[in-house]
Amino acid sequence: MKRFYFGGSESSGSDVDEDTLPYPKPLARSAFLTPEFDPTTFLSSLHNRHQTLEDLRTELRTRSQELNKELLDLVNENYQDFLSLGSSLQGGDEKVEEVTLGLLGFKRDVEGLKAKVEERRKEVDALVNERKGIRQDVQVGRTLLEIDQRLGELEKRLIMVPDGSAKVGQEDEDIAGLSDSEDENEEEEQANVMSASRLQRHAQQYLYIKRLMAKVGAEHSFSVWQEERVLRMKQTVLLDLGSALKQTTSTTDNGKERLLKILRIYGDMDEPDDALKLLNER
User: Fold this and answer.
1) What is the mean pLDDT of each run of 10 residues along the chain (282 residues)?
2) Which of 14, 42, 196, 249 has the fewest CB atoms nearer than 10 Å to its CB?
3) What is the pLDDT of residues 104-114, one digit of tens each?
4) How far is residue 191 CA from its own chain's centroid?
5) What is the pLDDT of residue 263?
6) How far is CA 243 from the centre of its chain?
7) pTM of this structure
8) What phi, psi does 160 have (nearest 5°)?
9) What local confidence, expressed as pLDDT, does residue 183 receive?
10) Could you tell me if 2 and 52 are in contact, meaning their C-beta atoms sit under 8 angstroms apart?
11) What is the pLDDT of residue 163?
12) DSSP state of 132
């Protein structure tokens, strides 16, 4: 290995004892075994090593040769074990074939179960859809019964006769849970005029029936069958509103308030043109 010399030439009288120079220690094998080993970082850590670059190359080359020799010795030592392993695996093909056949049978069983599950799922979906249809039919049936009941109640309140006309009769003001002292005063002032609250209840019940029929659908046979009946009710309600509007005077505060209520009822029924026409005829 090359040595370092300090001072002047060899001819000078002060020769340095070569044995006193610091020799570098061999590279530790553990430095190459770290998971984060990086050649550049490793070389940069050797800046304090008293060794020439050529000596470092020689040492690394020697270390590489030693590792190759160790690897070769390891293979040679375990070669017989490797050969015996191959002989111990004789007859493994039959076992692999048995496992393969077992897997194929298991696969067929799984596919059969999947087919049954899919068939069952379709049956359940069909039953669920059928149940939904039945529930919808039941709901429609209940709505139809309610419509028929509401129609009968409104006909009784309007006291409709078969020719489609109506006459004002006595009605229990507490049927809908409403009792208005103001209506009583109005009826005392105008004995032959229907109260605004009663007219409003009639209009609200008619509009509620229309909403129920819209839920059932205009194309439903029941809706088609009841269309003429509902139209007669609408005409009767409008007739009562028209009579009340004509007989209502706006000279008093009660009369003005009653007039506004009747006009709001016309607006709820979406018939403002009829109200304007009647006001112009007054």
Assistant:
1) 42 48 74 81 78 83 88 84 70 79 92 93 94 91 90 84 44 41 44 75 91 88 87 88 81 82 87 81 70
2) 14
3) 999 999 999 99
4) 61
5) 87
6) 55
7) 0.47
8) -80, 145
9) 47
10) yes
11) 44
12) H
The secondary element (H helix, E strand) that includes residue 257 is helix 253-268
Calculated CA dihedral for residues 90, 96, 101, 107, nearest 10 degrees: 180
Scanning the structure block, which residue is given the tokens 């040492």? 59
- The per-residue b/e assignment along 75-109, b for 16 or more CB within 10 angstroms, e otherwise, is eeeeeeeeeeeeeeeeeeeeeeeeeeeeeeeeeee
**Which long-range contacts link 143-146 to residues 24+ away (Cβ below 8 Å)?**
143/212, 143/215, 143/216, 144/216, 144/222, 146/212
Look-up of token digits 């093909």: 93
Is 136:211 a contact under the CB 8 Å cutoff? no
Sign of the Cα torsion 280, 267, 261, 201 reads positive
How confident is the model at residue 91, as a pLDDT?
66
**Total residues belonging to the chain:** 282
> CB neighbours of 194 closer than 8 A, spacing ≥ 6?
168, 240, 243, 244
Going by the DSSP 8-state scheme, the letter that residue 234 receives in this structure is: H
3-class SS at 180? coil
List, for residues 146-172, the tens digit of each pLDDT value.
Answer: 999 999 898 888 875 444 444 444 444
Give the Cα separation of 232 and 164 in Å (integer).
6
**pLDDT at position 114:** 94
Specify the 3-state DSSP secondary structure of 260: helix
Tokens matching residue 89: 């695996």
| Nearest residue to 173 via CA among 189, 186, 164 | 186
Cα dist from 32 to 25, 42, 75, 210, whole Å: 15, 9, 21, 90
Q: Which residue has the tokens 């005063």?
A: 185
The two structure tokens encoding residue 160: 């409709």
Rounded-to-integer distance, Cα 62 and Cα 76, Å = 21
